[in-house]
Amino acid sequence: MFKKSEPPIVISVGGSLIVPNGGVDTNFLSNLNKLIRNQVIKGRRFLLVAGGGNIARHYRDAGKQIIGDITDEDLDWLAIHTTRLNAHLLRTIFQDIANPRIVINYEKKIANWKEPVAIGAGWKPGWSTDYDAVILARDYKANVIINLSNVDRVYDRDPNKFKDARPIEKMTWDEMEKLVGNKWSPGLNMPFDPIATQLSKQYGLTVIIAPGHDFKNLENIIEGEPFKGTVIQPFKIDAGFYDHDYYLGKKGGHRFNRVESLGGKIFYNAMNFIRALIIKLSLNPKNCLEVGCGLGHLIRWLRFFGIDAHGIDFSAYAHKLAPPDIKPYMKVADVADIPYKDDSFDLVVSFNLLQHLERSKIKQAVQETVRVSRKYIFHKIITSDHNILYGLFHRRNFSDVSFFHTKYWLKLFSSFKTVTVKTASLLNPFDFVGSRFLLKKKQNDS
């Protein structure tokens, strides 16, 4: 029913969505049930972590009112047991498709997990279920944590107290740390647990804070469509590796500096020469566009082989570093809004670009590469099923925010009706890590 090779999606379900004001919200749970089951049919699997919410605070307040001082540990245990009650409710709803055991010990992975859904609850005092969701994302290599709550996104200060509170669409874990602090206390009401924030920063995770009652928005997040919410990532990066620090080797994953070191220059020059030669011999396009062209080295070699090559890159800094003779053929532009007319190029290529895009931007970016091509589109992508080989040549690369299995990309490319997906034969001794996809425009089929 589901693809075990693909990582699950972790969803942290706020307790205040399940039991908002002392009564169970059956409408919310019915909608969640419908959405999850629809996604399971599509082959996805989920780890749902139930929070405690307001009902947990009611129990804590009652204990304090009756006996006065209560230790933080006892207060946390009251909340933990509340999360377990909520988790059992979720487990009952998904009983036919969920693992029979609720995760309450995060030191052990689920034994022989075959079902498309598993449910988690609170674990130990000292943090919230946000922390537990982070542990699951780490252990099951999830690409993203979706944190559903009764707020639509993160604000720079409490919107219930300050009318001028500013919503934040993107932020780093450093910025989140400044917002939530670094200490946990029972009943703390923050967009994300401070202890979970520290752990997410350590593991370089991506977390999306989103409104819990907007199920169309949740579907958009899962399907890779534009959505409303706050994206929290290890560092600010837009449309890939387009900033000063990446090009100087501080944020990228390569084991040697590709701009300043002699080894880096030799390696990448040879790699782009081979790429250009194979493109010339296998496809021989009259003209070509490289999206995410970086410093333009592939453009230079393509032009050397007589191909009218051009490139776009989001980074003005990359354009600044590019060789003067290549700059006239480069534009600073977004891959999701390519500044060329339909059917402008025989071939459009990208190398190790798409895994750097936020999921909500990928489909539009691919559509743009299809639009401006009249014959072929080639995408080389670092994929999760090549993780072992990838690790031999790269350090951990936090800019791989869409580090997905090859099957994810095949499914995405196959969804475009104007192209056929062909097995890519553009082999390259420098490019054996990752997956290759060659798309051909249908109107040009003979």
UniProtKB/TrEMBL annotation:
<dbReference type="Pfam" id="PF00696">
    <property type="entry name" value="AA_kinase"/>
</dbReference>
<dbReference type="InterPro" id="IPR029063">
    <property type="entry name" value="SAM-dependent_MTases_sf"/>
</dbReference>
<keyword id="KW-0808">Transferase</keyword>
<dbReference type="InterPro" id="IPR001048">
    <property type="entry name" value="Asp/Glu/Uridylate_kinase"/>
</dbReference>
<dbReference type="GO" id="GO:0033862">
    <property type="term" value="F:UMP kinase activity"/>
</dbReference>
<dbReference type="GO" id="GO:0008757">
    <property type="term" value="F:S-adenosylmethionine-dependent methyltransferase activity"/>
</dbReference>
<feature type="domain" description="Aspartate/glutamate/uridylate kinase">
    <location>
        <begin position="9"/>
        <end position="210"/>
    </location>
</feature>
<dbReference type="GO" id="GO:0005524">
    <property type="term" value="F:ATP binding"/>
</dbReference>
<feature type="domain" description="Methyltransferase type 11">
    <location>
        <begin position="289"/>
        <end position="374"/>
    </location>
</feature>
<protein>
    <recommendedName>
        <fullName>UMP kinase</fullName>
        <ecNumber>2.7.4.22</ecNumber>
    </recommendedName>
</protein>
<dbReference type="GO" id="GO:0006225">
    <property type="term" value="P:UDP biosynthetic process"/>
</dbReference>
<dbReference type="InterPro" id="IPR036393">
    <property type="entry name" value="AceGlu_kinase-like_sf"/>
</dbReference>
<keyword id="KW-0963">Cytoplasm</keyword>
<dbReference type="InterPro" id="IPR013216">
    <property type="entry name" value="Methyltransf_11"/>
</dbReference>
<comment type="pathway">
    <text>Pyrimidine metabolism; CTP biosynthesis via de novo pathway; UDP from UMP (UMPK route): step 1/1.</text>
</comment>
<keyword id="KW-0665">Pyrimidine biosynthesis</keyword>
<keyword id="KW-0418">Kinase</keyword>
<comment type="similarity">
    <text>Belongs to the UMP kinase family.</text>
</comment>
<dbReference type="InterPro" id="IPR011818">
    <property type="entry name" value="Uridylate_kinase_arch/spir"/>
</dbReference>
<dbReference type="Pfam" id="PF08241">
    <property type="entry name" value="Methyltransf_11"/>
</dbReference>
<keyword id="KW-0067">ATP-binding</keyword>
<keyword id="KW-0547">Nucleotide-binding</keyword>
